[in-house]
Amino acid sequence: MTTHVVLIADTHVPKRARDLPSPVWTAMEQADVVIHAGDWVDERLLDECERRTRSLVGVWGNKDHGALRERLTEVARVDIEGIRFGVVHETGPAKGREERCGARFDDLDVLVLGHSHIPWDTTSETGLRQLNPGSPTDRRRQPHRTYMTLTVDAGHLTDVTLRTVRSPWRPERS
Question: Helix crossing, 43-52 with 22-30: angle to 10°?
Answer without folding.
Answer: 50
